Amino acid sequence: MCSFVDVGLISSRKFILLKLPDYFPLYASLTGAFLTFLVLVFHIPTSLLFLSKLSIIYRVNFYLDGLTCFFLFIIFNISFLFLYYQKDLCKNKYFLVSYILSLSLILAGNLYFFTIVLALLFLMNYKNRQRNASLYWLILPCLLGFMSCIPVLMNNQQDLFYIVFSGKTSSLNLNYLIFFLVLPVCCLLGFFDFRGEEKNNLHAIFEDEKIYYTNIFKNLIGFYGLLRIFISFYNYNLSMIFIVLFEFIVVITALKASWFCLKVSNLFNRLRYLFILNNAISIQLIVILFLALYLQKTALLELNYIILFFSLFIQNHGFALVFLLNSLKEKINNSFFIDSLFFLGLLLSGFPPFAGFVLFWGNLQLGISLILNHYLFDMILALFFIGCNAVIYLFSLLGWVNLFLALYKNYNDRLTAIGSYFNFLLGYGKGIRIYLLSLFIFSVCPGIILYWTYGIKNNFPSIGKFHFFSFKSEQLHIAFTPVFSVFIFGMVVYVFFFIKKKYFIVSMDPQNNQFKISDRKKYKNYLDITRFEFGTKTILNVLKDNFSLDIHSYLFLRKKTEYLKIYKTIRLYKKKFNILIWEHEQATLFILILISLLSIGLLV
Amino acid sequence: MVVIYWLISLCIIGFHLLLFLIMAPWLMVFIKKLDGWIQGISTESFRHSFYRIRIDLSESIRILLYKTLSLKDYIFLVSLGLLCTLALLIPFYTTDMIIKGNSDFLFIITILVMIPVFNFFIVYHDTSLLSFKKFQHMMIQILLFLPTLLLIAMVCRMNVKSTELNYIIVFFHNSTRFMNIASCPLLISACSLFFLVLDMPDLSDIIQKDGFSREDKGILLYINSLQFLLWLSLIAFLLWPQSIALFNFQQESLTSWLLAAFFGLLAWCIKIIIECAVIALMRNFLFISKGVYKIGFATVLNFLAIIIYFAGLSGI
């Protein structure tokens, strides 16, 4: 609380042009964001642009496209946000190198260049102390295999240096290409970064906090790698087993992340696991896309692309702000920090009309609509999918509730002042407030983002009508309009607000001070460690109370005596059972035949 | 013509909401009466309950309008607003022009599940450990409904090809051939919802033991009854979606629509009364209404609905 950072637009006066060499990355990212914004809005054809001509002159293959522009726009925006609020990053070489590498990977027009930059990124993230360091021994061979697939892809007809993404080539070897890319992409999205026993290891936490700026870059690159290869080399012959395996990996990581959200006590780790969870759910959309192409359901593609790009845009921006706020939490006002995290939670968690809910909704709807073939295998897969997603949704909700509990534990009075958060006359933190409000507007009107993705539509197999306010596909009879629900809710609540007196005064004097959960002592790192547990233990206890079921006794039969008991009872009933069969021979035969017929009928 | 159309639709919406808000406390009174009737216990008279509801409601409204808002009242307000939006979204007796393409089954379910999550944050005001445990228990008990609810959504999607409530009504009004195949699984999944709603977390236990003021008690009970009525009306929708009239005022005459709407209203009332009777019977005579069996039965019934759908397909 000693030194406040001025979190507002007014502090931009300090940046005069003389400081340009010092803060070059900041200005560069701002201009890059502006240029990409122009390209996205006015749908400028990419053949007119400068970078595509560079490849002819200098033989360095760069490539610009609607997809690249979309990803570049996100990266420039996020890096501008980081650099503006934390000015030390302009001289931090680790951050800058990863920034430049991610930019060059997205602009790469050659698959060799692509793989080399990917390998460099993996080397940057390699740590000797890391528990899963052996994973890198698996990833590098995967990249080698990926590189070896490239000449086969083009059937050795052309010179290898001229592989460009623009031609919509189709080949049978796409299977292998994506197979080799899946493991590196999963590693980039943080699917293997689970560490359970670091509750008290504060050293590990501080080590991580240096790197979390690059978390979002890594995530974006992972998504870009999959989408780039999928969109430009699309083919309908992906094997079913591969898709099911990919789905299995994604679902297991999502379940694991949702469980770790409850287990972990540190705030930053909890946020990181929630980030991984949301990534896994949006990767599920890509898996559904693969499946839809396999089952030849092109009606699904349109809505799938819309929800995917929408969620990519809003979640990366939202989580960037979350990580930034977490880094600034000792420097900025505590109440401001807590309120803005509350609103980000509304945006990113599964609360109905906003972006997090749209992700879950789209995922479930598209997953269910895959089964309209009425084959048994599809139905079993869909049932598995829905059951897992229900559990994931449940745990993610509990994880966000847990986060709010940790935040507001010591600040009981803050929740009432939230109503005046978006009052722009308040001076403090104006920039972040505008950023958050714009994110809310985007989440309510998805048409703004979809208009920008028009440049990508040239690469799509099929795209239909354009809806500004809703997620809609008329072939599937699916529709959801977030504006409508917000409007009605606002109307209903405004009736009360209009009539009542216009000031908030909190009258809170808890009557019993003996059984208080919260401690009102304000110590320095009060946000890092949650005091009372609302995690794994409580859920197990609630299950025990609700279902009259002791999980440990049923799932982990450790005692041998229980086996012996079962064996003894079986031996006792064996004689009686034999006599019973001997007496009623015909009846038993009849029952056996009936059971088998019924079971066959059920299976059929 | 357009003006009349708009006016009638606004009238429908207003009547929807008013009917919903007025009926909610009486539902709880009716269920208590039924319980007393079955168990042979004397309950309070209708006149007494009428006065009680009037006093409670007047005091609870006074909180929202004239007092300064504390955290608790803020939460009450938000949950009331969410319930009112849901009341507009679920069609009771007619379809409106507003809900066309906006009432999604998944959306309604998630908001219904979210309301106890909101009520959980009352803990910040009332910091006793007992209330914390009770609210937590209530929240998780309702969140555990999610897998079965998603299965019901899947049944809807398979049978009627969409999860929009408006589209379901249109489907049942238009189709002739597939109607019986689609209606049977929907009926079974509606019956499975009975098992969930049956033992719904009751706020009265929390209110009696903790030190809530009388105004808070009134509004909490009101929210609980509203929530219960919404669940029941969702079941009523799935039981017999044909009874709800279509609002095609531009195509059909006014009198025919009025007749259909009146029939829909009557059907809704009868359905709610029957559901109340079924729930009272289940509470008193069904001894497996607690624990894992409740949710287990619901899931098994939904699986059965899927199997029956496939059996129906083979008959064509």
Task: Describe the structure in brief.
The complex is a heterodimer of chains A (604) and B (316). Chain A is an all-alpha fold and 604 residues long. Helices cover 63% and strands 1% of the residues of chain A.
Report strand % of chain B: under 5%
Residue windows where pLDDT falls under 50 for at least 5 positions of chain B: none
Percent of residues in helices of chain B? over 70%
Number of strands of chain A: 2
Overall average pLDDT of chain B = 83
State the assembly state of the protein chains. Answer: heterodimer
Low-confidence stretches of chain A: 1-13, 502-533
Main sheet of chain A?
2 strands, antiparallel
Query: Pairing-aware structural class of the strands and helices of chain A?
Result: mainly alpha
Instruction: Please give the radius of gyration of chain A in angstroms.
Output: 28 Å
Binned strand content of chain A: under 5%
Q: How widely separated are the two ends of chain B?
A: 44 Å
Total beta strand runs of chain B: 0
Tertiary shape of chain B: globular
Task: Tell me the series of helices and strands of chain A, N- to C-terminal.
Answer: HHHHHHHHHHHHHHHHHEEHHHHH
Q: Termini distance of chain A?
A: 69 Å
Number of helices of chain B: 12
Quick check: average pLDDT of chain A? 75
Categorize the overall geometry of chain A. globular
Residue share in helices of chain A?
A: 55-70%
Overview of the molecule:
The complex is a heterodimer of chains A (604) and B (316). Chain A is an all-alpha fold and 604 residues long. Among the domains of chain A are: 238-484 and 526-553, no CATH class; 557-603, no CATH class. Helix content of chain A is 63%, strand content 1%. Chain A is built from 22 helices and 2 strands. A two-stranded antiparallel sheet of chain A has the order 1-2. In chain A, β1 and β2 (478-480) form a beta hairpin. In chain A, α3 runs antiparallel to α9 (212-232). Mean pLDDT of chain A is 75; it is low at 1-13 and 502-533. Chain B has 316 residues and is an all-alpha fold. Chain B has one domain. In chain B, 77% of the residues lie in helices and 0% in strands. Chain B has 12 helices and no strands. In chain B, α8 packs antiparallel against α12 (292-315). The mean pLDDT of chain B is 83.
